Amino acid sequence: MLELVALPAVPLIAAAVVVFVPKSSRLLLPLLCGAATSAALVLAIRAGMQVVGGDPLQLSLPWVSQIGLSVSLYVDALSFLFLLLILGIGLLIIAYSFYYLAAGEALSRFYAALMLFMASMVGVVTSGNLLLLVIFWELTSVSSFLLIGFWDREEAARRGAYQSLIVTAAGGLAMLAGIIVIGVQAGTFELSELLRRGDEVRALPGATTALGLILVGAFTKSAQVPFHFWLPSAMAAPTPVSAYLHSATMVKAGIFVLARLSPIFAPMDLWVACVPAVGAVTFLVGGWGALRQTDLKALLAYSTISQLGMIVMLLGFDTEIAAIAATLHILNHAAFKAPLFMAAGIIDHETGSRDLRTVGGLAPNMPRTALFACIAAASMAGMPLFGGFISKELFYEAALTATESRPWNLATPIAALVGSSLTVAYSLRLILGAFFGLPLHEDHVHEPRAGMRLPAEVLVVVAIAIGVGPQLVVGPLVMAAAACITGTTVHSHLALWHGWTPALALSLGATGIGTITYLARRDTLRALLPPRLGQTAADIYDAAVDLLIDGAHRMTGVIQSGNLHAYVCTILSVPLVLGLTGLTSSTTAPQLADVTPPIGGALLVTLITLTATVAVAVLYRHRLASVLSLGAVGLLVAVYFVWLSAPDLVMTQLLVEAVTTILVVLVLYFLPKEIAAHEPRLRLAMDAVVATAVGIGAASVVYWILRRPFESISRYHIANSLTQAGGGNVVNVILVDFRGYDTMGEITVLAIAAIGIVALVYAQRRTA
Amino acid sequence: MKSILLQTVVRILLPPALVYAAYILFRGHNLPGGGFCAGLITAAAIVLQYVARERREVEENTPFRPDLFIPIGLALAAATGLGAMVLAYPFLTSAVAHAELPVLGGLEWSSALFFDLGVYFVVTGVALSILLAIEE
Please, which residues bridge with residue A70 across strands? Predict the structure, then answer.
C-alpha cells in the first residue's frame, strides 16, 4: 500500500533532480523525466488493475493532525482514469517537447516545472484528504504559472501567466474556504469518511455555502464562464504546455473535483440549479468564441472551454448515463485535443505562424500531420467511428433523459444541439482553414520530424480504438469510474451503434446545422450575435487589475512623498501618540512604585554635558561638526550605561556609534558642507515643537512605565543562565538562547533591510 | 588622493582588529561581547580599508564577497535551530558541554555559539553591504 506514495513522489523527485541537470544536456533531461513518468505509470497501472471493479486503495499517514491534515491517498477507478491521462499523455508530451523546444532554451527549468506540475496533478487525483487536495491544487496553479510564463521575455507570456495564477489561485482559496466549512462541521477532512457520510454532510448548516465556494474553485480551474478568460491568455505558453495542461490535465482538475464530490453534493439544490446551467452557457460561449478566432491555439482554447462546459453540464445532470458520458468524454477529449494542439505546434514550428489568415492549404505539404489532425477533429465533431461519436451520442441521451425528469428543462437538449453544431462548425473551420484550400504559405514547408508527429499519432490511434470498439477498449474502466461519480454500481454497455434513437437524430441535426453554420459564417452570424460575447469577464478582470495598480500608485504617492522632513516627523509622532494613548487610556489608576532617584552629582554633570553637545549638534552650521557632536552624544550615553553597570550595552553603543559615524561621513560626501542658511522660520518653530513634544513624551512614557510594579523576569534569567544555557553573560544568553527566536527574526529583518538599502542605492545610481 | 598615513595605519590595524573581533565573539557567552559586537568590529575594520585605500586594491586582496555573509549567517543560525529539531528538541534549544582543557582550563561549550556565529556573519554582511554600497 505504501507504494501509493510513490505515485506523486517519483515525479516530484524527478523535478528536484532535473533542476540541477545543466540545460545543455538536451537528451538527458527528457530521458530522466520520461523514465520517472514511465515508472509512475507502471505503478499506476498496477494499482489500477486492483481498483477497476474492486475497492479503492487507501493509505493514511499522519501529518498535521491538529488541523486534520494527513497524507491520505485514495485511489479508485476515477483516480486511475485521471492517472492514465496525466502520466500517459505526460510521457507523450515529454517526447514532443524534445523536438519542439530549441537547444539553448532554459530546458532544465522547463522540465522541472513540467515534472512538478505532473506530481501536483497526480497528487490532486490521488488525495484522500481534502486539505491535501487543496495543497496539490494550488501547486498545479503555481507550476502552471511557471510553465505559461516560460518565455518570460514576452509580455503576453507574463500577462497570461499572471492572469491564470490570479484566477485559479483565487478559486483555490475559495475552494479551501468551502472545504474548511465542510471539514470543521463534519469533523473530518478524510474523503472516504465524507463519502460514506454523504447524507449527514448535505444536512450540515453550512453545506450550501461550502458547495458554492467549492464550485467557484472548480469553475475557475476548468475555465467555466465567467472565469473562462484566462485560458485563451494562457495560450502564450509553449505548445507542449498547452497540449498538456490546457487540454488534457490541469483544466480537468476542476472536473475531477466535481466528479469526486458528486456523490456528496449532487443531490443538493445549488448543484442541480447551477452546475448544468454554467456548463451549458460555457458550452455555447466557448463554441461561439472558437468560431471567431483566427489563431489556431486560441481557437483550440475556446474549443477546450466549450468541451469542458459540456462535461460540467453532464456532471450536473447526476444520472448514470450522464456519468458514463462525462467519463468517456474526459478520455476522448484528451485523445483528440492534445493531438490538435500538437498539430498547431507543428504548423507553428514549420511555417512560423499559426494564424488562419496566413497559413492554409498545408495538406499537400504535410499529409501525415493533416491526416491525424483530420481524425482528431472528426472525433471532436462527433463523427462515427471515432471516440467523440460515442460520447456525443451518450451526451444527447443524457440531455434528453435530464429533460424527462425535469420537464421544464427543454433548454438542455436545445443547448446540446446548438453547442454541438458549433463544435462541428469550428472543427470544419480548423481543418479546412489550415490544411485545405489555396496554399497561403509560399515557403517550402514540409513534414516535421517523425518524433514530433508520433505522440499525436499514438493518441489518434487511441481515439479510433475507442470509436470502433468502445466496450472492449475502455468499457470496464469507464463503467468503474462512472460508478465513482454516481456513488452506485453502474452496469451498462458502450456500443458504436445504438439503433435509430432520438440521440442519433440530434447528432445528424448537429452535423447538418454545423456544416451550414460553417458555410454561412462571417456576415450572417456576426450580425446575429454580439461580437464580444464572452469578453465581458476579461474586461472586468482587466479593469479590476488596472484599478488595483492605479490605487497602489496613488497610495504610494501619498505615503511615500519623498519628503525626508515629513518622514522624520511622522516616525517621531506616531509612537508618541501611541504611547500617550496607552498611558492615558488605562481606566484604573495603577499602583505606582516609589522612585529611587539614581541621579547623583557625577551623573548630573554627564547630563549637562550631554545637553550641551546636543545643542552644538543642532545649532552648528557645519555638517561635519554636527555629525561629530552627534557621535559625542552617543559616547556620553555610553557613559550613562557605565553608571548603570551595563557593560554589554556600553560596548554595543560604542560600536554602533563608531559604525554610524563612518556611515554618516560617507553620506556627507554627497551633501553640501554648510547647512542651508535660510530655513523658513515657521518650519523651524514647528520642528522645535515636535522635537520637544517627542522628547518630553518619551521621557514621561518611560517614567510611568518604570514606576509600574511588575514581577521582573530578570531573576529567572540570572538564576538559569549558567545552569541551563552554560553561559555566564546573561545578556548574551538572553540574545542567543532564552530569546533566540527573537534574534532569529531580528537578523532576518536586518538582512532584508540590507537588501533593500543596497537595491535602493544601486537603483538610484542607475537612474542618475 | 588618499592619505598615505591613513593607508598605513588601517593596513596595520586590520589583523589585530579581526583577532579582537574573534575574541569578543567567543567570550560573548560569559563576558561582555558576542556576535553583534564582533560583527560591527569586523565591518568597521574592513570598511576603513575601503575608505583609506584604493577600492580596486582592496577588492583584489579580499577573497570573499561581503554580501554572501548574509545568507551564510542566516543559514548557520537557522541550521543551529533546526539541528535541535532533528534531535527532537524544540527549535533553537541549545546543548551545553563542559570540557577540561590542559592549558585553557575549564571551558563551557554551548551550541548557542554557532547561533551567535550566524549573528556575527549576518551583522558583518549587513553592515559591509550597506556601507560599501554607499561608499562606492
Answer: A62
Mean pLDDT, residues A27-49: 91
Q: pLDDT tens digits, residue range A331-373?
A: 999 999 999 999 998 888 888 888 888 887 888 788 888 899 9
Pick among B113, B119, B121, B128 to test the A interface (most A CBs inside 10 A) = B119
A439 domain-assigned:
yes
Closest of A10, A29, A31, A11 to residue A20, by C-alpha = A29
The DSSP call for residue B103 is T
Q: At CA A667, angle to CA A666 and CA A673, rounded to 5?
A: 100
| Spatial separation of the C-alpha atoms in residues A240 and A96, rounded to whole Å | 7
DSSP letter assigned to residue B67: G
Contact list, B40 vs chain A (CB under 8 Å):
652, 655-656, 658-659
Residue A336 lies in a domain: yes
CB atoms inside a 10 Å sphere around CB B1? 3
How far does chain B reach from its first CA to its final CA, in angstroms? Answer: 15
Instruction: Count CB neighbours of A197 within 10 A.
Output: 16
> Between the CA of residue A394 and those of A380, A421, A613, what are the distances in Å?
14, 16, 91
Q: Which residues of B touch A751 (CB under 8 A)?
A: 70-71, 73-74, 122, 125-126
Give the dihedral sign, CA A256/A262/A265/A269: positive
Q: For chain B, what is the domain count?
A: 1
Q: What residues of chain B, 75 to 114, have a C-beta less than 8 Å from chain A?
A: 77-78, 81, 91-92, 94, 96-98, 108-110, 112-113
Last residue of a domain, one of A505, A529, A553: A529
pTM, two decimals, is 0.77
Nearest CA in chain B to A741: B92
Domain-located, residue A21: no
Which residues does residue A636 pair with via DSSP β-bridges, in sequence order? none
**For the segment A192-241, what is each residue's pLDDT rounded down to a tens digit?**
999 988 888 898 888 999 999 999 999 999 989 888 888 888 888 898 99
Burial of B60 (0-12, 13-18, 19+ CB in 10 A): exposed
A213 lies in a domain?
Answer: no
Distance from chain centroid for Cα A33: 23
Pairing of strands A57-64, B96-101: unpaired
Distance from A744 to chain B by nearest Cα, in Å? 7
User: Cell numbers of A49, please?
Assistant: 488493475
Query: Can you tell me the distance from the alpha carbon of A570 to that of A568, in angstroms, rounded to the nearest whole number?
Result: 5
Taking the C-alpha atoms of residue A193 and residue A38, their distance in angstroms, rounded to an integer, is: 32
Q: Using an 8 Å Cβ cutoff, are A14 and A36 in contact?
A: yes
DSSP A391-453: HHHHHHHHHHHHHHHSTT-THHHHHHHHHHHHHHHHHHHHHHHHHSSS----S------HHHH
Q: At what angle do helices A6-18 and A28-51 cross, to 10 degrees?
A: 180
Contact A747 B119 (CB under 8 A): yes
Q: What residue numbers bound the domain in which A742 lies?
A: 711-768
Contact B13/A at CB under 8 A: no
Distance from CA of A635 to the nearest CA of B (A): 16
Q: How many residues does chain B have?
A: 136
The residues that bridge with B96 in the sheet, in sequence order, are: B110
Give the H/E segment covering residue A601. helix A601-619
Q: What is the interface pTM, i.e. ipTM, of the complex?
A: 0.89
Q: What distance in Å separates residue B77's CA from the closest CA in chain A?
A: 7
Listed in sequence order, the residues at least 6 apart from A291 whose beta carbon sits closer than 8 Å to its beta carbon are: A422, A425, A426, A429, A517, A521, A525
How many domains does chain A contain in total?
A: 2
Q: Which chain A residue's Cα is nearest to B51?
A: A666
- Asked if A316 and A269 touch (Cβ cutoff 8 Å), the reply is no
**Is the CB of B32 less than 8 angstroms away from the CB of A726?**
no
Q: Which of A511, A529, A547 is the last residue of a domain?
A: A529
| Residue B87 structural domain | 4-135
